Amino acid sequence: MARAVDLRGLRHTLDRLAAGVGMSPPVSGLNLLPAALRRAQIARRCLAPGEHGAAAFGDRPLTTLVAGATKLARELARDVLADLLTLPSAEREVLLKTLQVWFAEHGSAKDAAERLFVHPNTVRYRIRRIQELTKRDLADPRGAAELYMAIETQRLAGA
Length: 159
What we know:
With about 160 residues, the protein is mainly alpha-helical. The protein contains 9 helices and 2 strands, in the order H-E-H-E-H-H-H-H-H-H-H.
């Protein structure tokens, strides 16, 4: 229990930093340090651009998987987004940004629209277009998870 309290204090201190820091789960033994370092690096990669503070390994499980298996994630994301990725650059980037913001705003077209400076109906139209192109329904948990994995892969690839 004291160890958990110590980690909470450490995390609280790291959260106040003006930089991003990755944290692995605690380890005991020098032989475990390479794996702990790898996990801390993966956790750090999960932070959004400009985000600072501490990110613990596993805080964002799906993003952690994407960050830990980048080659495989890129391959799967290309498959999920295949038709969308063939669009002209400007249209593709607008749709990808809309999807990223839509997820960041927990599926709220209204909140996503405010962040994107467009009308909520524009967000809804773009989301329908994404669903048509990817043949995935965001109302279906599996479809939503696959699109989230793909958009997180895109985000991390750009970081």
